[in-house]
Amino acid sequence: MTSAPPASAKGDLRTVAEAILCEATGAARVARLCPHCGSDGHGQPRLLGSRLSASISYAGGLVAVAWGAGSIGVDIERMTPPTRRLDELGVPDLAAWTRVEALAKAAGTGLRGWPDLELPDLPARSLDLPDGYVGTVAGDAQVRLAGPAAPPA
What we know:
Elements: H1 7-25, E1 29-31, E2 46-48, E3 53-59, E4 62-68, E5 73-78, H2 86-89, H3 94-107, E6 124-126, E7 133-138, E8 142-146
Antiparallel strand pairs: 1-2, 3-4, 4-8, 5-7, 6-7
């Protein structure tokens, strides 16, 4: 829903997110491979050298990194005027949208096929985020925030 940060800023946040995942999970590195187009530039993160699952979400100067066993998904959004009307997407508010997106990431499909997605039956909880952000994590995951908008550790 929110606009993506500039490529260089998102690249910096991606580097930070991948370092967090490697440190927290013992993974050798993080790889991606889109099952639809074959690109290694996007897609669900895979932790090479770890049996854990991971998910990453970016919004403005904030990145949320989630990891754990089983299906994991995380989505954060900056509370700015949406580029699309949420009611047209069939969700009541931005918090509900982050729940949908986190569950769709945990399913491994992302939003491909929306609104006819079958979302997994996983626990999903709201994240405690800085003012101006909203987010959800799906699955039994640990979450860490990073970036210029993240609260001090």
